[in-house]
Amino acid sequence: MLEAYYQKGVIEAGCDEAGRGCLAGPVVAAAVVLPENFKSDLLNDSKQLSKKNRDLLKEIVKSESVAWAIAEVSPKEIDAINILNASFLAMHRAIDQLKIRPASLLIDGNRFNAYEGIEHHCMIKGDGRFFSIAAASILAKTHRDALMEQAANKYPMYGWDKNAGYPTVAHRAAIRAHGITPLHRKSFKLLPDQLTLF
């Protein structure tokens, strides 16, 4: 079972992002403050769970958390500031929206841009270690997957309802055949031989 907190008695927000390695779509982040006594046998890193369980946990997290928020950074913004900074910005935007101010941030990964005087702790593979980070990973991934499923209705040839914008063989083949959309990240290597796409 994951850990309930990093520091006992401190209001902690777990933060995680989804979509960092995608060729298309926004990067999405979530911040979640859970009650200190929160427990779940099912909650884990969102990548380790089935879609059915992620959808189930999304509702549990939203109903049982003290506070939660989700934020996006667009492909255009990603191209302007790079994906690492965009990931940090998405987390900052999520933290901005929390209805209570946490005293500490638990960040999935090994780097972060400090947020307005709140202490932070970077946790490698944190989404598999702490409930709050795992909860944030669930909200970020389910929100982003839903966005990409909607986008697939407008651009069905890219298979985003199946690949969520990640660089699959089929996605890259569709880019080669059809070019790019406004949702593609122009700063990314969209094709291995990077033809002139735009």
Verbal overview:
- It is a single chain.
- Helix content is 37%, strand content 16%.
- β1 and β2 form a beta hairpin.
- The radius of gyration is 17 Å and the shape is globular.
- The chain has helices at residues 51-64, 75-81, 83-97, 131-154, 160-163, 169-178; strands at residues 12-18, 27-33, 67-73, 104-108, 119-123.
- The chain has 6 helices and 5 strands.
- The chain has one domain (12-178): Nucleotidyltransferase, domain 5 (2-Layer Sandwich).
- It has 198 residues and is an alpha/beta fold.
- A 5-stranded mixed sheet has the order 3-2-1-4-5, with helices on both faces.
- It starts with 11 loop residues before the first strand and ends in a 20-residue tail after the last helix.
Q: What oligomeric arrangement do these chains adopt?
A: single chain
- CATH architectural arrangement: 2-Layer Sandwich
Shape: globular
CATH homologous superfamily title: Ribonuclease H-like superfamily/Ribonuclease H
Briefly characterize the structure.
The protein has 198 residues and is an alpha/beta fold.
Fold blueprint:
Blueprint: E1 12-18, E2 27-33, H1 51-64, E3 67-73, H2 75-81, H3 83-97, E4 104-108, E5 119-123, H4 131-154, H5 160-163, H6 169-178
Parallel strand pairs: 1-4, 4-5
Antiparallel strand pairs: 1-2, 2-3
Helix pairs in contact: 1-4, 2-3
Main attributes of the structure:
198 residues, globular, Nucleotidyltransferase, domain 5, 6 helices, alpha/beta
